[in-house]
Amino acid sequence: MKKITIIGAGLAGIEAAWQASKSGAEVDLYDLKPEGRTIGHESPFLGEMICSNSFGSSSLSTSAGLLQEELKHLDSFFLKNSQKFRVPAGNSFSVDRIRLAEHLTEEIKKIPSINLICKDVDHIPESEGPVIIATGPLTSEKMSEKISDHTGRKNLFFYDSTSPIVNLESLDTEKLFWASRYDKGDADFLNIPLNEEQYHELVDDLLNAEKVKLKDFEDKKFFEACLPVEEIASRGKESLAFGPLKPVGLKSNPEGDDHYAVVQLRQDDASKKFFQLVGFQTRLKWGEQKRIFRKLPGLENAEFERFGRMHRNSYINAPVIITGVYQSQKDPGIYFAGQLSGVEGYLESICSGLLCGLSAGKKINGNSLSEPPDSTASGALLKYIKGAGWADFKPSKFSFGLLPEMKVRGKSKREKKLIRAENAIKNLEEWIKKEGI
Ligand SMILES: Cc1cc2nc3c(=O)[nH]c(=O)nc-3n(C[C@H](O)[C@H](O)[C@H](O)COP(=O)(O)OP(=O)(O)OC[C@H]3O[C@@H](n4cnc5c(N)ncnc54)[C@H](O)[C@@H]3O)c2cc1C
Hints:
It is a single chain. By secondary structure, this protein is α+β, with helices and mostly antiparallel strands. The protein has two domains: about 5-160 and about 315-435, FAD/NAD(P)-binding domain (3-Layer(bba) Sandwich); about 165-310, Elongation Factor Tu (Ef-tu), domain 3 (Beta Barrel). About 30% of the residues lie in helices and about 15% in strands. The protein contains twelve helices and 18 strands. It has helices spanning about 10-20, 65-75, 75-80, 95-110, 140-150, 195-210, 230-235, 285-295, 320, 345-365, 375-385, 415-435, and strands at about 5, 25-30, 55, 85, 90-95, 115-120, 130-135, 155-160, 165, 175-180, 190-195, 260-265, 275, 305, 310-315, 320-325, 325-330, 335. The mean pLDDT is about 90. Flavin-adenine dinucleotide (FAD) binds near residues 41, 136, 139, 143 and 311.
């Protein structure tokens, strides 16, 4: 009997495996874990969210909120389980990412039709059944070479960075204040208020600090949505104050003035022990991170659970490689899922894995899956990566800008987005029915 082979059991891979197993297919799911690790993963568990613990806002009028809603309608394994590990984070959907990954691993192991195999796969297996490659942005060198042999082009890759995590107990919380921006939701963020002098000292420190050097072959390209803090600082003295450190809507008390800048700390685990410095992805040397971030008020004695760091990020040139539902033009039995396929972000990776799993499940039963309508987030993202300009292609998140225009008069921006989101859900529901999912 034909099997579905999935390489990589990260966010996309486990979602694909679960969806494929619903079709009755047998699935071989390979991962380096628990024995091995990529340079970025820290736990032995599958489906590990590697950096931030947040899926973004849950509000339907936001890109993240619409994608979450679509994933719910599509019966996403990842999202369904994530609900059980929610941690307070105002209006956004954040989770205890390590406990979630542990739970997802247990759930996958319980499914009899999924064979979990620990192996560092170094080639694309020849198989009569569909093969889903979901090895992620940190795909190993050997596997990357084999992928570029298949695609006929060199993989594009660039560098990204993660933000530091500190231990709450080690902070002087008297100097900080709890609040969510504009008081939306509960006061879940711990905020560090900075005056003008403190802010400019931080900017100068970031600019002058020692950074981890890029190697000769490394191209200095970053995710625009996840830029290192020192990179943002280098774009202008006030760019952080208008970016991740913007103080608007964050007051220490109702009558108080806005601060010059505010560094936000977001809860990282359910037990509320660890907090991430929001927007502080960095490639500063670890000693420099300790020295500079301990100058922030309240962080004088901060214990760092994790420092920010550099990492590789691989993805294929989707516009020239992908056809159908994340399938290879050269061999539609081969799928690319997750970040490697040219989508960017947790939700986007889950979404592409989900569609690959559904499509492979249908394929093995002699059927095919049509693409979700362009008016849905899942369909618009797929359409975008296939049709984007290939000369300078970069992984993409979903945004409302990818949806087709819809004429709605006399409404606020938020209301217009809400109408387009409701339209997307309605069209997705019709597609789900038509496909018999
Ligand atoms: C450091 C870093 C930080 C990021 N931070 C964020 C963030 O904060 N928010 C966000 O939305 N997105 C973030 N992303 C982008 C992206 O959303 C995540 O990387 C997401 O995990 C991608 O899902 P994936 O399934 O494609 O890959 P992964 O979740 O990385 O899964 C890939 C899996 O494949 C396995 N694997 C790799 N190579 C092999 C091999 N040769 N053989 C067998 N198994 C293999 C790995 O062990 C891993 O389990 C980040 C990316 C990186 C690299």
